[in-house]
Design a protein that fits this description.
Radius of gyration: 18 Å
CATH class: Alpha Beta
Keywords: ATP-binding, Nucleotide-binding
Pfam families: ABC_tran (PF00005)
Number of domains: 1
CATH superfamily: P-loop containing nucleotide triphosphate hydrolases
Structural class: alpha/beta
Family: Belongs to the ABC transporter superfamily. Ycf16 family.
CATH architecture: 3-Layer(aba) Sandwich
Organism: Novosphingobium nitrogenifigens DSM 19370
Strand content: 25-35%
Shape: globular
Largest sheet: 6 strands, mixed
CATH topology: Rossmann fold
Distance between the termini: 32 Å
Protein name: FeS assembly ATPase SufC
Number of helices: 8
Number of strands: 12
């Protein structure tokens, strides 16, 4: 069953067409990777699915868990189970990470008609997810991403994903800025949190290295606003060896 279905999606950013009829179907239990050259529209796809302002949809449709995703506000998409991991996680001075995570989780629970987690239950959950990503629990007391290294920011974001427990995660170049050890830890964290029969992941990446840890079921090549080729994990190796230009041609 398709968890996310994109049909002929087209959009504009500042009046410039970026996505030009993109179609993709992702089923529950599947991990899909999207690769492609700079400027192909990979991050634009992520932001459009997340509902970022300024990304105007001009055509097509997106269905998520049987609902019209494009009709939802960003917070409604999040409450429905959509998670967007950013290439460059933002800093939020003055707001502790633990406060941010608790407010985010309880806001989503409220939207779904669920009771908020108590302080004790939340702290237990947050520490459990921090341990999974080998992130010092003391870092959760610090302002969101302030003074964090690139690897710490990405691990903190995966802790956030673990706490929110989404149905579908869009991870935009989660491997950027990670050293070898952090890459392994983040990859193992993604698998532990999201590799489940009722969940799905869309990985956006330039490189094979993350896919060594988070093995995709399908790999797609995005070029000039469309998916121009799809295949299995071997397609990522082909891209690594030959480059985008040769494979797209």
């Amino acid at each position: 069953m398709s968890l996310l279905s994109i049909t002929d999606l087209a959009n504009e950013v500042a009046g410039k067409p970026i996505l030009k009829g993109l179609s993709l179907s992702i089923g529950a239990g599947e991990i899909h990777a999207i690769m492609g050259p700079n400027g192909a529209g990979k991050s634009t796809l992520a932001y459009t699915l997340g509902g970022r302002p300024g990304y105007e949809v001009t055509g097509g449709s997106v269905t998520f868990a049987g609902e019209d995703l494009l009709a939802m506000e960003p917070h409604e998409r999040a409450a429905a189970g959509l998670f967007l991991g950013f290439q460059y996680p933002v800093e939020i001075p003055g707001v502790s990470t633990v406060q941010f995570l608790r407010e985010a989780l309880n806001a989503q629970r409220k939207t779904r008609g669920e009771e908020p987690l108590s302080g004790g239950a939340f702290l237990k959950l947050a520490r459990e997810k921090a341990a999974l990503l080998k992130l010092d629990p003391e870092m959760l007391k610090r302002p969101v991403n302030v003074g964090f290294s690139g690897g710490e920011k990405k691990r903190a974001e995966m802790v956030q994903m673990g706490v929110l427990d989404p149905k579908f995660a869009i991870l935009d170049e989660t491997d950027s800025g990670l050293d070898i050890d952090a890459l392994r830890i983040v990859g193992e964290g993604i698998n532990a949190i999201m590799r489940k029969p009722d969940k799905a992941v869309l990985l956006i990446t330039h490189y094979q290295r993350l896919l060594d840890y988070v093995k995709p079921d399908f790999v797609h090549v995005l070029a000039a606003g469309r998916i121009v080729r799809s295949g299995g994990p071997e397609l990522a190796l082909e891209l690594e060896e030959q480059g985008y230009e040769a494979v797209v041609a």
